[in-house]
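Supplementary notes for students who missed Thursday's class. We covered one full example, reproduced here. Read the sequence, then the structure, then the short commentary at the end.
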Amino acid sequence: MTFTGMKFLEDCPVQPLIPLYLLVGGVIGSLKVTLLLYNSTRMRQLLSKSVVIDDDDDDEYPWRQNAHKYYIHLTLSLFLFLWFILGNYWVFSVYLPNFIPPFHQPQDYCDKTLYIFAVGVLIISHTVLFLLIFCSCCIYCFSRQRYSSDED
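Structure (token representation):
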């Protein structure tokens, strides 16, 4: 996403926010994935070294030690969700623009590669989101059904 947005930054005058959507979404998404991988790797290193956390800790809420990481991930996730909504608006508000600059209005076009890529990213995102929601609902329904049959 980042490279496509950067490469075609000036190639969509009909909606100049489409390449910006790809560029910023790619950078922030990569940052979030990098932080998640770093945290996962760090946790694995600590577990492999068999680091034991002292149970005599006076802090009743040990999650406070990692609260800043939680808020960073929450902020990045919220930003990416809002950016996704804005990207939907920007891309689909000019659905099927001219891919070749018209002679009479040279600013009324968008590069075909850029636009098709942006639509593809959004369609894949919608598909994954739909599958996650659908699978979550199925798991919820089957677990409730199994729980209610166990009570009988």
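Commentary. The two ends are 52 Å apart (CA to CA). The chain has four helices and no strands. If anything here is unclear, bring it to office hours.
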